[in-house]
Amino acid sequence: MRWPVSTCWPAIPPWTAAWPCWRMPTRWACAHRAGRRRETAGRPRATPSRPSTTPAGCRCRRIRQRHGAWTPMHECRRLAARLLTTSCLLACLAACGTAEVPDHDIHLRLTAAPDLNPDRDGRPSPVIVRIYELAQSDDFCQADFFDLYDNDKRILGKNLLSRSVLAVRPGQRLVLRPSLVPGTRYLAVFVAYRDIYRARWRAVVGLPDSGDIDWVVTLAAGSVAVAERDGKNDLGSWKEGIDVLEQ
Hints:
Keywords: Lipoprotein. The chain is α+β, with helices and mostly antiparallel strands. About 30% of the residues lie in helices and about 20% in strands.
């Protein structure tokens, strides 16, 4: 069934339907539309259970039957935003997964010399030791002693992942088993010797890609060194489980 032209084009009066190119005055079109709105004001709105009976509703229904269900534009935008958010979250999770540190069983064995950190009279004295977990070691190696001692967090910045502070007495032997923070690539040792101008107060070592770590941190009178444990530096038993002053 074909709908009359006057019904399909409600803005055009019936007596002008034969001339589709004729432009009616704006005031006529507005008055006609206002009349149509008053006529349809009391009618119920079209719903999936109650389809529209107007020509436009029949046309949309035929389009849906031919091409499938029609999705409103705001629903499409909402779906696109959800897909974009999901893809960003997956990308972040993948990036975090790549920064995981290899699985190591770590033993840091600290051995302090009997003449550790002598004072002006030559008497040995305790010393403060800091152990850093770093992503990069350039800032640590280039920094000054006092800069690291006073503002290590600001100097190291985002490369500082973790820090442990402990006091070591002369002749003491300790063992540390730290749990590395994901992203750790270097372990750095900072020793606050009394005579910093003659002392070698820092040491840096890179983590291997795989395998267990068993290192010996030797605190001499005025120097610190880190080496793998072997028969030469295995001089006895270490005390396990120490009190960390600060992290």
